[in-house]
Each structure stands twice: as structure tokens, then as C-alpha cells.
Automatic annotation (TrEMBL):
<dbReference type="InterPro" id="IPR036724">
    <property type="entry name" value="Cobalamin-bd_sf"/>
</dbReference>
<protein>
    <submittedName>
        <fullName>(Dimethylallyl)adenosine tRNA methylthiotransferase MiaB</fullName>
        <ecNumber>2.-.-.-</ecNumber>
    </submittedName>
</protein>
<dbReference type="GO" id="GO:0046872">
    <property type="term" value="F:metal ion binding"/>
</dbReference>
<dbReference type="Pfam" id="PF04055">
    <property type="entry name" value="Radical_SAM"/>
</dbReference>
<dbReference type="GO" id="GO:0016740">
    <property type="term" value="F:transferase activity"/>
</dbReference>
<dbReference type="InterPro" id="IPR023404">
    <property type="entry name" value="rSAM_horseshoe"/>
</dbReference>
<keyword id="KW-0949">S-adenosyl-L-methionine</keyword>
<feature type="domain" description="B12-binding">
    <location>
        <begin position="20"/>
        <end position="161"/>
    </location>
</feature>
<dbReference type="InterPro" id="IPR006638">
    <property type="entry name" value="Elp3/MiaA/NifB-like_rSAM"/>
</dbReference>
<dbReference type="GO" id="GO:0031419">
    <property type="term" value="F:cobalamin binding"/>
</dbReference>
<dbReference type="Pfam" id="PF02310">
    <property type="entry name" value="B12-binding"/>
</dbReference>
<dbReference type="InterPro" id="IPR006158">
    <property type="entry name" value="Cobalamin-bd"/>
</dbReference>
<keyword id="KW-0408">Iron</keyword>
<dbReference type="GO" id="GO:0051536">
    <property type="term" value="F:iron-sulfur cluster binding"/>
</dbReference>
<feature type="domain" description="Radical SAM core">
    <location>
        <begin position="198"/>
        <end position="427"/>
    </location>
</feature>
<keyword id="KW-0411">Iron-sulfur</keyword>
<keyword id="KW-0808">Transferase</keyword>
Length: 458
């Protein structure tokens, strides 16, 4: 173990409240080029600032790109007492390196990791074993109130942080998790848009509820609670007014789905009608195909530029059963037909799902291309709170421990995964598609080969 990352016994942690929050944007998505703010970190910032805690000083590092040495130097110059990293798949390796360098410089700083990749299972990947020794706590689940409680603590020794709900801490031998924190009431969390903390322009990030009623095992939301508390129309309308003053082009709805929480949808519809926010703006949202109803279609009709993603993952129910999901063909076809009449639609499938195979995947690919919709194909990733901890041993997952992309698994050899990547690259280059780090994007075919809703019914 390098000396820098060795855990030092009983280091006294600082009690000051100069806080650095660090987040980094992913590589711009060729299919969604608009600026989208680092919403998670802005939510934490809003909660901290609204608390008006004595002695609090918050600095946000809102990074587009960074080298570890430069970022470490900038943080050492600022000399914060608390450093919170917002960790996603793309930023985790960089932040792990910076955390180790900061600890080597001064182990008394209080180092926190939050965000979807801040999970014990991720730190247990061999490349990150040394990082476990330098992080004081992982904020597991939503971060606003947990972060505020941790910053409020006068003493930040292991026995003190063990009193805070929603954290995991490494003691040099094992992880210790405290009680789960229930999902917050979004009406009580301050909005970073209303507080004018978000840079202007681009797309606003809109959230009307948290959690998901489903448990798809490849998805990090599959372990969250079923959503109960939703944002009120009044709260949403205030946020729309604030987004309007920041000159956003529209909004990205980050809910599990537009149609997965009827109370949240009612409130969103009310706020949208009251403010007319979407009349000439874009709304990007996911919908769950089996649950489309007339009110959702009427809502989309009133949006200036609606873009809808349908997370199908595979057309094969046996494949979907392996990841705790299902699909009803006749309803899917008629719902896609309805949606394509009012919105631009993209079907989303996954390449490399355990229990799928190259042959079945190709069938899903060609069937998806027969719809008058764009297509997004994702390389299956073994996410820390999803497949990494939920896949049964027979799935035989073999994945890159840094990028988390699947290399082989039940139904797929390494060669087959590689060949399918080459196939998708070639299809993207030949069909005006685009290749991203983790996905391939194809525009809607001008002349779909078949009209699936007719051919299947025949
Ligand atoms: S894939 Fe969609 S429906 Fe399934 S758990 Fe994730 S958010 Fe919920």
C-alpha cells in the first residue's frame, strides 16, 4: 500500500465549516448537447446555504475537466475543513486519486464521498482499496440532509459520525453502515434554481419525486423506496419561474418516469398549465411503456418540443426476467404508436445484459430499428448498487473495475461482447449514428422497414 493511502490511527478531524463541494460533468452526450448542471451538488449547496450555519463558507468546484494534480493543488490552496465529492461513474477514478492526495497532505480534513458511485461495493473494487482508508464517510442515498448533519457536527470522530443516518464508514477492516435515511420531502428542500445557484442557460434539471416502484436489477433506482412524497404544483411553479429567469431552453425530467407516480404527474401537469413554462420549450423525460394513459398524451401535446425515452432494454421477456423486468408486446406497440404521434421518441436497449446473447440482442436491435423512433443502445454496466450487489452468482459477471462495463457474463463471452461493440460502431458510422463512451445513438429511420404495430397484429 502506498504510504499516502495508509490509514493513520485516530487522526483528530477538524471542526471548521469551510466546505468545498466538488463535481465534474461527463463528456458531453452527442445526443443531448445542451448544458445540464451538476444538480446533485447544487442541491447540497442549496441546503447548506439555506441552513445559515454559523461559520459556514461554501465553495463549489463545478468542473468540466480536471487533472488530479491541479485539482488537488486548488483544494489545498483553499484549505477547506470539509471536502465533499459528488461521485459518478465518470468522475469516481479522478476523485479517488484527489482524495488520496488531499489526505497525504493533511489527514485532518474531513473527506466525504456522495452520489451514485459512493457505495462500499465500488470502494471494494481492487483499484480503490487504498481510497477506502482516506474517506471519512460515504453518504449512501440522498445527500442534502446527511451532508448538512455531518457539517453541523462539532466532533467528527468515527463515534460521532456513527450517529448520522445514511452513511457508511470503513474502519480499516470492514464497512459499517448506519440506519437508512428515509427519502426527504422535496417540498422542504430548497431549490438551487430559486436560490439562483445554477449557471444560466442549457436545460434545467427537474425532479418531482424520488425513488421508483420497480426493482430492475441493472438500475441504481431499483433499490430505492417506492416514491410517496411528491412536489406540489406551487413548489414546481416557483422553480419554473426561476428557470425562466435563468433563460433555460427546457428541462430534463430526472424522475424514474413521467408516468410512474400519478400524484407527481398531476402536480407537474398543474404547474405546467399554470405557468405555461413548456409552451415553447423542450422537455426530455423517460416513460414506462406499459403505463401510458390519455392524460400523459394530452400533457405531451402541450409541450413545445417533447422528447421521450422508452427504457425497453430487450424485446425478449426471458432476458428481462433475469433483470426483474417484463414487457407486454401488444401494449408496447400501441403505446409507442400513440407516443410517436405527439413526441420524438427514443427506444433504449442494453447490450450485454446477463442472460441475453448476441443472437437475441441482434433481434432486439433490428426490431427496435423497425420502429419510427431513435434508438439508444447502452453498454451494460455493473453499477455499484445495482448488478454489482444484486446479480446472482450464475450471472458470472466479469467487468472492468473502473469503467464498470461488462466484459463477459451469462450468455456472453468476451469475444462476443467485443464483436457486438464492433458491430454497433460500424452500424453507427454507416447509419449516421453516434458513438459515445457508454452508448450508441441512432436517429429515427426515415423509412422504417416495417410498421411493427401492423405486422405483429397480422
Ligand atoms: S429502470 Fe426505470 S423502472 Fe426500472 S428501477 Fe430503474 S427507474 Fe425504475
Amino acid at each position: 500500500m502506498p504510504e499516502s493511502a495508509a490509514r493513520q490511527p485516530a487522526v483528530q478531524k477538524r471542526s471548521g465549516r469551510t466546505v468545498a463541494l466538488v463535481a465534474m460533468y461527463p463528456t458531453p452526450d452527442p445526443a443531448m448537447p445542451e448544458f445540464i448542471s451538476n444538480h446533485g451538488v447544487r442541491m447540497v449547496e442549496a441546503t447548506l446555504r439555506a441552513s445559515e450555519l454559523d461559520g459556514l463558507d461554501v465553495v463549489v468546484f463545478d468542473l468540466h475537466d480536471a487533472a488530479s494534480d491541479e485539482l488537488t493543488e486548488a483544494l489545498i490552496d483553499l484549505n477547506p475543513d470539509v471536502v465533499g465529492f459528488s461521485c459518478y461513474l465518470w468522475s469516481f477514478p479522478l476523485f479517488a486519486e484527489v482524495a488520496e492526495q488531499l489526505y497525504a497532505d493533511d489527514p485532518s480534513r474531513f473527506i466525504l464521498f456522495g452520489g451514485p458511485s459512493a457505495q462500499p461495493s465500488m470502494l471494494d473494487q481492487p483499484p480503490f482499496h487504498t481510497t477506502r482508508n482516506v474517506i471519512d464517510a460515504l453518504i449512501v442515498g440522498e445527500g442534502e440532509l446527511t451532508f448538512l448533519e455531518l457539517v453541523t457536527l462539532q466532533n467528527r470522530q468515527p463515534q460521532d459520525i456513527a450517529t448520522v443516518r445514511g452513511i457508511a464508514a470503513w474502519d480499516g477492516q470492514a464497512w459499517h453502515q448506519t440506519k437508512k435515511r428515509p427519502l426527504a420531502d422535496l417540498n422542504e428542500l430548497p431549490s438551487p434554481y430559486v436560490m439562483q445557484l445554477v449557471p444560466p442557460g442549457g436545460l434545467g434539471v427537474l425532479q418531482t419525486y424520488r425513488g421508483c416502484p420497480y426493482t430492475c436489477s441493472f438500475c441504481e433506482w431499483g433499490t430505492m423506496e417506492s416514491p410517496k412524497r411528491v412536489r406540489s404544483a406551487d413548489h414546481l411553479a416557483l422553480e419554473f419561474d426561476a428557470m425562466d429567469s435563468l433563460g433555460v431552453d427546457g428541462a430534463l425530467l430526472v424522475d424514474a418516469g413521467l408516468n410512474l407516480n400519478s400524484k407527481a404527474f398531476e402536480q407537474l401537469d398543474l404547474a405546467a398549465q399554470r405557468t405555461d413554462f413548456f409552451r415553447n420549450r423542450k422537455l426530455i423525460s423517460e416513460v414506462y411503456p406499459a403505463k401510458i394513459q390519455d392524460p400523459h398524451i394530452r400533457f405531451l401535446e402541450r409541450i413545445g418540443n417533447p422528447l421521450v425515452g422508452i427504457g425497453l432494454q430487450s424485446f425478449d421477456n426471458d432476458v428481462l426476467a433475469n433483470v426483474e423486468r417484463s414487457f407486454e408486446e401488444s401494449r408496447f406497440i400501441s403505446n409507442v404508436q400513440q407516443l410517436t404521434e405527439v413526441a420524438r421518441v427514443a427506444i433504449e436497449i442494453i447490450m450485454g445484459l446477463p442472460g441475453d446473447s448476441p443472437e437475441q440482442f441482434r433481434e432486439s436491435y433490428y426490431r427496435a430499428r423497425s420502429f419510427p423512433c431513435a434508438l439508444r443502445v447502452y453498454h451494460c454496466c455493473v453499477l455499484p448498487s445495482a448488478l454489482m450487489v444484486r446479480s446472482p452468482p450464475e450471472h458470472a459477471l466479469n467487468y472492468d473495475p473502473v469503467s464498470l462495463k461488462i466484459r463477459s457474463c451469462l450468455g456472453w463471452s468476451e469475444d462476443e461482447v467485443r464483436r457486438e461493440c464492433e458491430f454497433l460502431n460500424a452500424e453507427a458510422h454507416g447509419n449516421t449514428g453516434q458513438v459515445g463512451d457508454y452508448f450508441w445513438v441512432f436517429s429515427a429511420p426515415k423509412n422504417p422497414a416495417i410498421q411493427p404495430w401492423r405486422s405483429t397484429a397480422a
